[in-house]
Specification:
196 residues, disordered N terminus, 8 helices, alpha/beta, 40% helix
């Protein structure tokens, strides 16, 4: 037991040094031995935890909120289990006194008060349309598509060796007047330079 726990303890010690222990613990990244039947459920939980925790590491311009205690609104272009997980995870969290409010976005819905949009891979047919609708606005775009970053996504999930990781495009975030913390950048799998 002690020998098996050493790699996990080393990962946790590294997380403490990075100042991201809460982020890593909440995602369950230390769990590497899982039954195949649990893999999809765990993936949803990890993505939900990441999506909700990203708000701790992003700075929106003051004008993105109508009041100092306005909620951070997460718009979901998603359905099914992953949408349920995000809703459940967000209910228990707040960022700098702002509650997280989750709203499912259907075709044609207004995105005027949305601060973060997640586009699930099951909704890739709406990806280009969604990204075009928020281009240049202070909205953090989180996706899981290989073509998403080229279209303007800021954080894109990838699964590598059965682990959920993410790539970040700092330029896309800056173009939308968002500042991503160096702490979050430091744990990304890859920082992607874009010219669009």
């Amino acid at each position: 037991d002690g020998v098996a726990a050493r790699p996990i303890r080393r990962r946790l010690a590294r997380a403490v040094r990075l100042g991201l222990l809460g982020l890593l613990l909440s995602t369950g990244l230390a769990a590497t031995c899982l039954a195949q039947s649990d893999a999809e459920t765990l993936e949803y939980r990890i993505k939900a935890a990441f999506i909700c925790k990203f708000a701790n590491y992003v700075e929106w311009p003051a004008q993105a909120f109508t009041r100092t205690n306005s909620p951070i609104v997460i718009g979901m272009v998603a359905r099914g289990a992953v949408a349920d997980e995000i809703t459940r995870t967000a209910a228990a969290l707040s960022v700098d006194g702002r509650h997280l409010k989750v709203r499912r976005l259907h075709q044609g819905d207004s995105i005027a008060d949305v601060h973060l949009i997640y586009v699930a891979s099951s909704e890739n047919s709406r990806l280009a349309e969604t990204l075009a609708a928020v281009k240049g606005r202070p909205v953090l775009i989180v996706t899981e598509s290989s073509q998403a970053v080229e279209l303007g996504s800021m954080i894109n999930f990838v699964v590598v060796d059965d682990k959920v990781r993410f790539d970040i495009s700092p330029h896309s975030a800056e173009s939308s007047h968002l500042k991503i913390s160096a702490r979050l950048l430091s744990v990304a799998r890859m920082l992607i330079a874009t010219t669009s």
